[in-house]
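Standup, Tuesday
Yesterday: got the pipeline producing structure tokens again.
Today: sanity-check two examples.
Blockers: none.

Example 1:
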Amino acid sequence: MTNPEIEKKLSILPSYLKKQNAPAYLTSKIIQRLSLLEKPRQTEGFSFFVLRWSLAIAALWIIGISLFFKMDTINKVKVKFVVINRNAETISIVGDFNKWDKNANKLIKNGDKWLLEMNLRPGRYQYMFVVNGSDWVTDQKAREIIDDGFGQSNSILDTNSAQTEKI
């Protein structure tokens, strides 16, 4: 057969083909077979995919928080404050390091001594003690003092000096 003869027979072919529907019994058998196939397992309301990602995110969050706290203590200097005062009921320390807040850092009484240890970033800080919530007192052991502009003197703490203990 030549090309034109093949083309002619092919052009007539669609008229011979008729659209036919599958018999009803065949359709029902196919649907029945499909329903018997094993369905993928799924646990109701729970997904291992979600669990895995939740655990991964939680682990990263914990690692990040622990690194944050570790970084917060790097290059800090441990400073110990000691005040001897028999008559005080409370003593706190205020300064540049705590925005002069009387309630931020309270010393702990141990006999006649009041003690507080702090970790500060390297630097130079002005500070004073507040006795019984109202009496602002200069640290008599401070190596340096400076006029505070209100008729008193602030103590100076330089955490770069050899007197402080680096952690």
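Example 2:
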Amino acid sequence: MKLKPLYGAVTLLLCSLTGGLFAQSQEQIDKFNEERRAYFTKELELTDAECKAFFPLYEDFQNRKMKLVEDERNTWSYAYNNAENLSEEEIQETLNKAYALKEQQLQLEKEYYQEKFLKALPAKKVLSLGKVEFDFRRYLLHKLRDERKESGSQGGRAPRRSESPEPVPMIPGPYPF
């Protein structure tokens, strides 16, 4: 499908944006979390009781997921940067570790989407959650693009032919779309 490359590009961008959050001030992180909370509350039409039950679970889920994503990214980065010096056995161990981390991510998603979130939200809202997460990421990308346009930044422009673009590493593995 044509969505796979788009999903991969969005995932890379969001990982870099999320990674950039760690370099941000606590005030900026809090602002991001408040904006996400407001967006999810509106789009999922959450009641006060649902918000109180859902958001602590969601924050825990996001923190655990980002840790696994970071570990996987570091594993692939290590493999790519040291590929010439790794033995066949070390390469196999690295591949096993990377895919074990991906399996842990899937298990985490199953645990939260099929059990924990269902204790806090009706099934229909849990079903909509994935789409709301995707839409929120798109919203953030558009907002970032608009902010760059307003500030006059050229960060979003395509490189000229005389410029060589920096290569974008591909995230290995299957994509959900």
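Quick observation on example 2: Helices lie at 3-21, 26-44, 48-82, 88-120, 123-151. Residues 1-10, 159-165, 167-171, 173-177 have pLDDT under 50 and may be disordered.
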